[in-house]
């Protein structure tokens, strides 16, 4: 039990950026927009958050900078995908490549620098035997991510605005005929997704590492994209999946710590192998995916074209 509590806490820590990014991407895809640029958005937000946090000594300002940069990247994607109606897959891939290069260029002078440790945990609760070390020793952003997941579930299934968002993702032509601005709703969804990806990137450079190195995100943007399909576009399953993938990520360090004689390169592959296995299992039942996937996902909408 003494070893299990730190393992659970580390899994939550590793799963938090995945949860933040996947929640944002879920909202994008519920609105019918497929944004494959999460990796690039997270990288730009990570260096922006670290640069601001390091310069101002304020992690909160770092998170705000990360969210703003994520929204700016999402705005660029929106202009290309919504206004110019470019191919969403190609545009997202281009955004990811652009973000990778931009973050590497901006972050040159921050390589090797580190942030001071931050206080974490909930005073009083973090001293409860087992439960405290396992669940109440996290950074405050981890609890914000959990609350955000619950809020998104409530928004999607208990509010009129959530119903409209899902309607836009299912049939944008019908939503447009009823007088709703499909492009406007999708733009707001993309801004929210960009902010969430920005918070995820900032979490990696401000809390999880906390330092900046080129390629810091290490494929987590792609894992977050896979999580939305794994969760069949449901917030509760996104939470479960993020904790699962966070646990797989931490498992490599745990196995090394107990002396398992497996090459470190193989252990580092575990999160990505798990992603491939999950996607392969999901793909075995295309009818199940078709029933849960937003009908207009990835399809551009042009008012008056139908």
UniProtKB/TrEMBL annotation:
<keyword id="KW-0812">Transmembrane</keyword>
<feature type="transmembrane region" description="Helical">
    <location>
        <begin position="187"/>
        <end position="206"/>
    </location>
</feature>
<feature type="transmembrane region" description="Helical">
    <location>
        <begin position="140"/>
        <end position="157"/>
    </location>
</feature>
<feature type="transmembrane region" description="Helical">
    <location>
        <begin position="60"/>
        <end position="85"/>
    </location>
</feature>
<feature type="transmembrane region" description="Helical">
    <location>
        <begin position="92"/>
        <end position="111"/>
    </location>
</feature>
<keyword id="KW-1003">Cell membrane</keyword>
<dbReference type="Pfam" id="PF02653">
    <property type="entry name" value="BPD_transp_2"/>
</dbReference>
<protein>
    <submittedName>
        <fullName>ABC transporter permease</fullName>
    </submittedName>
</protein>
<dbReference type="InterPro" id="IPR001851">
    <property type="entry name" value="ABC_transp_permease"/>
</dbReference>
<feature type="transmembrane region" description="Helical">
    <location>
        <begin position="262"/>
        <end position="282"/>
    </location>
</feature>
<feature type="transmembrane region" description="Helical">
    <location>
        <begin position="34"/>
        <end position="54"/>
    </location>
</feature>
<feature type="transmembrane region" description="Helical">
    <location>
        <begin position="6"/>
        <end position="27"/>
    </location>
</feature>
<keyword id="KW-0472">Membrane</keyword>
<feature type="transmembrane region" description="Helical">
    <location>
        <begin position="212"/>
        <end position="231"/>
    </location>
</feature>
<feature type="transmembrane region" description="Helical">
    <location>
        <begin position="238"/>
        <end position="256"/>
    </location>
</feature>
<keyword id="KW-1133">Transmembrane helix</keyword>
